[in-house]
Specification:
By secondary structure, the protein is mostly helical. The chain has one domain. It is built from nine helices and no strands. Helix 1 packs parallel to helix 7, helix 6 packs antiparallel against helix 7 and helix 7 crosses helix 8. It starts with a helix and ends with a helix. The relative contact order is 0.21.
Length: 197
């Protein structure tokens, strides 16, 4: 039941984009079309899930036993950078068009604070390995859901008459704000009502 609570928490209640406002750079930059949004979402989900497991293992297997917890951020960033390089190489070989569409935003996953955020939250919340993996996957799914919703909204807005001063990024931020308000309906009472907390 705790795994279900973690999944619901990071997909809906503490969505990294719409509630915690982490990872806004790729969220706004890549959400112009659905194909790029799906690709970025899947890449981020892979990195958050894998990084959560690897960072948990490094923290509990190396940093904590030797009293090196202060190196946590540096170690986690190195893990995330290595995983992003792996994703880049795979995408370049498997889907050159998606690799090109993601452009500069793919290497920016390395500095995406949502990825580092979930790795640190896993340690701060004292999650075990399975819970850390669930939190990482859920955070990635929440990110993917938010970026796909935003890409659909932005594609529709391209077809609608929007004032010149609001076109592009301004209307994207306004739309994100309205989406964030909608996500405020999900809160911890959802978990309590489901008896999962």
């Amino acid at each position: 039941m705790r795994i279900i609570a973690i999944l619901l928490t990071y997909v809906f209640i503490n969505n990294f984009i719409l509630v915690k406002f982490l990872g806004l750079c790729p969220f706004i930059g890549v959400s112009k079309n659905s194909e790029s949004a799906v690709g970025m979402g899947l890449a981020v989900t892979f990195v958050t899930g894998t990084a959560s497991v690897v960072c948990w293992c490094i923290y509990h297997g190396l940093l904590e036993p030797f009293g090196l917890q202060y190196l946590q951020t540096i170690a986690f960033i190195l893990v995330i950078a290595a995983l992003v390089q792996l994703v880049e190489m795979v995408l370049k070989k498997m889907s050159p068009s998606l690799y090109k569409a993601l452009g500069i935003f793919l290497p920016l996953i390395t500095t995406n604070c949502a990825v580092l955020g979930i790795a640190i939250i896993n340690i701060d919340e004292s999650y075990n390995l399975i819970e850390s993996f669930a939190a990482g996957i859920a955070a990635g799914i929440g990110f993917t859901m938010a970026i796909i919703l935003m890409s659909n909204i932005r594609e529709q807005l391209e077809l609608k008459p929007v004032r010149k001063s609001f076109k592009g990024v301004p209307i994207a931020f306004i739309s994100a704000g309205i989406m964030a308000l909608a996500f405020m309906a999900f809160d911890n009472s959802l978990l309590t009502n489901l008896h999962l907390a």
